[in-house]
Design goal:
Number of domains: 4
Number of helices: 16
CATH topology of the largest domain: FAD/NAD(P)-binding domain
Shape: globular
Structural class: alpha/beta
Bound molecules: flavin-adenine dinucleotide
CATH architecture of the largest domain: 3-Layer(bba) Sandwich
Mean pLDDT: 96
């Protein structure tokens, strides 16, 4: 026990307060101070879109802790309205300025913690970014300014720039407030940093269905305002969109200036470099949360992972270590989850594209299925895209979308990947089963088994995107829908190549199919389509593949009606 230990923490939102609370539990006698430039601490920033959308009734609900609470319960001093300005490493002092009075002072430390977070990206070159009605979203104060703007009768059209997590949550929030909402993204797909295009298409479909105007694959050239300095238009490479309010959701940049000026090492991804103990290049200075870079647990690469989940874990580890412990942080998997209106979306580990870029030869499966027994009331569809290493079967990542339960599947994926599990491990995980919760075989089991079948050379598939391309190019092939007549009537792909031949008639009518035909089979979720592939191969057909994910993962238009 060290009665003299002085711990100073810069930043009072997620990582900082978590560090302080843990440090106090580990050392009842240390002097612990949090320096925060804002007027509040411990804001629940993750809830801001739901406050703007009206689901969270009051901003007070998002003030998780107050300085008074920290003092009374944990004897932690919180200095709000105080900015850390210089780290005097030799003297072990942090210079601070009281923002109200301008008075500077020095806080001596034995251990310093940098938890300065990140700042929303606002490109200096973006014309009109300072117009009235243009916002970023980080703090309760930002949300209150947005809510105030929404209260004006003239605020009818919102434009969100950036279709990442916060952009999409903001779009939904504005829609819940009855605005006409447009979402602009420079890359061709929504959630481009998280999902492969085939999964993004499901998100885009949901956004479009819910009335969000999508402007994908177009960079914003600038914002235009009126004579009073209020934003009126967003001009992109291909469109001019009317706007009464604009949110810039272009990502976050780690706040590392203070550390850089103190000579601490900044990593290749732009965040503060820390070791597994969350120590910076100065062993008496620790750092965590959005301002640091993390190690990706699959690739070993340094990445930014600005998530509250990660910031809190960092804080706990730092709290342990600044009080004499030796806890380590193993890294992240880039895990994320988001609600997109009625669609739940999650991703873990590497996407197919990222896996390829990291030097793997990925094998994937697209497995749609129900989140509980299909006959149980409330059962909803979800689609899992599983990404594995074709050489070893190691699970590298997964993406899940659907109206059903996705969080639990994402967490199973996290666990499997964290333990270096393979598709063989996943296929036999003893997951909980009872009809209200699951199917006897979970969608993850199906996904794992599909990858196993592919690795064994038994299952051969094509993606929906490839099938769509072949249809558009007028290629000569048979798109064999092996569902029932009723399922076809409900929804089918309209293409001259598409033909209905239900699985139970396939054997009997197989002679109606030319043996040398290129055939792509499809059903509702791929299970019957794969059976059809096996059956046709058994009959001597040589070019048969099933469409991965089948009609459930088909992101393009379908029509209803009987066979003509
Ligand atoms: C709208 C929104 C939704 C989100 N949703 C999710 C979600 O669903 N799930 C999830 O995991 N994450 C989510 N996040 C991310 C999450 O909020 C952040 O990862 C988390 O807040 C990071 O915590 P932090 O302590 O590292 O940094 P911050 O929360 O950024 O806090 C850093 C603090 O340091 C202060 N500071 C900086 N420099 C100084 C200085 N020199 N002196 C004094 N004080 C300083 C800042 O004022 C700030 O208060 C969301 C974020 C936003 C904005």
């Amino acid at each position: 026990m060290n009665a003299e230990r002085r711990i100073v923490i810069i930043g009072g939102m997620a990582c900082g307060p978590k560090t302080a609370a843990r440090a106090r539990r580990c050392d009842p006698h240390a002097s612990i101070s949090i320096v925060e430039q804002g007027t509040t601490v411990s804001e629940g920033s993750c809830g801001l879109p739901y406050y703007i959308g009206g689901q969270v009734a009051s901003d007070r609900a998002l003030l998780i802790r107050t300085p008074k609470y920290f003092k009374e319960v944990s004897d932690i001093d919180v200095l709000t309205g105080t900015r850390g300005t210089v780290i005097h490493r030799d003297a072990h002092e942090l210079e601070v300025v009281n923002l109200a009075t301008g008075v500077t002072s020095r806080l001596p430390y034995d251990k310093l913690v940098i938890a300065t977070g990140a700042t929303p990206v606002q490109p200096a070159s973006l014309a009109g970014k300072d117009l009235n009605g243009v916002f970023t979203l980080t703090k309760i104060a930002d949300a209150n300014a947005i809510v105030k703007a929404l209260g004006r009768e003239t605020t009818k059209k919102a434009v969100v720039i950036g279709a990442g997590l916060i952009g999409i949550e903001s779009a939904e929030a504005f829609k819940s407030r009855g605005l006409d909402v447009s979402l602009v993204e420079a890359l061709p797909h929504a959630l481009p940093a998280l999902l492969d295009p085939d999964m993004s298409l499901q998100v885009e479909k949901e956004l479009a269905t819910k009335g969000v105007n999508l402007f994908l694959g177009q960079r914003v050239l600038g914002l235009e305002g009126d004579s009073e300095g209020a934003v009126r238009r967003v001009v992109t490479e291909h469109a001019t969109i009317e706007a009464d309010i604009v949110i810039l959701a272009l990502g976050y940049r780690p706040n590392v200036e203070l550390a850089r000026q103190a000579g601490l090492v900044i990593g290749s991804a732009g965040g503060l470099a820390v070791n597994e103990y969350m120590q910076t290049s100065d062993s008496d200075i620790y750092a965590g949360g959005d301002c640091v870079e993390n190690t990706h647990r699959v690739t070993g690469a340094k990445i930014l992972a600005p998530m509250g989940s990660t910031a809190n874990k960092h804080g706990r580890i730092i709290g342990t270590n600044v009080t004499g412990g030796r806890d380590t942080f193993p890294g992240v998997l880039g895990t994320a989850i988001v609600k997109v209106f009625d669609l739940n979306v999650s991703r873990v580990g590497l996407s197919e594209d990222e896996a390829r870029k990291a030097g793997f030869d990925p094998v994937t499966a697209l497995a749609p299925g129900f989140d509980r027994a299909s006959y149980y009331p409330g059962a909803q569809l979800i689609t899992v895209k599983l990404v594995a290493d074709s050489a070893t079967g190691r699970v590298l990542g997964g993406q899940i979308t659907g109206k059903g339960e996705v969080a639990r599947r994402a967490d199973v994926l996290v666990t499997t990947i964290s333990l270096n599990g393979t598709v063989d491990d996943m296929a036999n995980l003893d997951l909980a089963y009872s009809p209200p919760f699951n199917g006897a075989m979970d969608v993850l089991h199906h996904a794992a088994n599909t990858v196993r079948n592919k690795r064994a050379g038994q299952a051969r598939s094509v993606s929906a995107a490839e099938v769509n391309q072949r249809i558009s190019a007028g290629e000569d092939f048979i798109l064999l829908d092996v569902r029932s007549q009723q399922e076809w009537n409900d929804a089918h792909i309209e293409a001259c190549q598409c033909r209905l031949l239900p699985l139970n008639k396939l054997r009997e009518e197989v002679s109606s199919l030319p043996k040398d035909a290129r055939i792509v089979t499809l059903c509702r979720t791929s299970i019957r389509a794969y059976q059809a592939q096996c059956m046709l191969e058994g009959e001597g057909f040589t070019d048969v593949r099933f469409m991965d994910g089948s009609i459930m993962a088909w992101p393009y238009a379908v029509v209803c009606g009987p066979v003509k």
